[in-house]
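Z., the sequence and structure:
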Amino acid sequence: QVQLVESGGGLVQPGGSLRLSCAASGSIFRINAMGWYRQAPGKQRELVAAITSGGSTSYADSVKGRFTISRDNAKNTVYLQMNSLKPEDTAVYYCNAVLPVRGSWGQGTQVTVSS
């Protein structure tokens, strides 16, 4: 059973950057794909970025070219580098398994993009 804890969120100005971290209590090597999701108030959670154990990545169109997902299997950590942030990126960000099966949702980390 892998427990995930997100961190790194905060308040940033439009155009700013943040790096989110997802620390796992156990090995994520066996998880084929990990991802970052986000949920804005009144909105459904959406997958914004995913990465396989081999390092292949995919992104939602809304963040493509601005966000970069990475993983360090040795540290059992997944990262999300967010650049050129926009107000519409404001949301609670969560990490979770994408494949083979998604796990339970944690508390997430709040990202607020505002002047």
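The two ends are 40 Å apart (CA to CA). The chain has a mean pLDDT of 94.

Let me know what you think.
H.
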